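Proteins fold reproducibly. Next comes an illustrative record:
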Amino acid sequence: MSLLGQEAISRIRSGELAFGWGVQHLRGAAVPLLAKAAGYDWLFIDAEHGSITLQDISQICLAALPTGVAPIVRVCRDALDEGTRALDNGALGLIIPHVDTPDDARQLVEAFRFRPIGRRSVGGSAAQFGFQPPAAAEMQQVLNQQILLIAMVETPEAIENADAIMAISGIDGVLIGTNDLTLEMGIPGQVGHEKIQAAYNRVAEACHRHKKVFGMGGVYDRTWAPRYIAMGARMILAAGDQAFLLEAATNRANFLRSAANA
């Protein structure tokens, strides 16, 4: 039985380019509709930073599922209960920050996969099935196969361990948190630094070797984003709602000022 939004998840898994819309400030059912209208494939619903609540997350996920835009939620590294509740209320995936070691990755699999892979508890709304889930055994099997579990690598230790992290069954891929990685390396904001290029190369090789998803966040400029995409990054966090709003609003204000002065 298929899940709502499965097409977007399949694109991500198959290594097609898939663009994410970051959700930090916007709320409500309009969010996935706006993302779809703008040509985005998935939502990066950010519960690590910002003030979004579980109720907000649930409503955005429920609104996203019928649109085909995949709702994927980032929760804090140790907020395992928030992750399971997001999944119970419609999320099609989780992104977990600060995964540095294979043991960290194994803990995520145990928390967010059903048996026999993990030990996630059964419950929730089965919204991913349109509230018409199959029998329990099939439901758990489909969710284990289809729900995305993405580890963020954001430290030199995590980059060193990228291959071992990717080798863990139940982890679907990694997303490089480039901003935090530059901070950890003592080169804040230098997303094109040779150390960052080397990190992308190492992660790209690990993802290719293990046939896992290769994601990129924090690189938004016209120089380095294309280069890292060329290395194989395919699950791309394009930017957040604040950046989208400010860019569009600033461009419109500048246009109107120039029109008034013409």
Residues 6-260 form a domain with the TIM Barrel fold (CATH 3.20.20.60). The two ends are 60 Å apart (CA to CA).
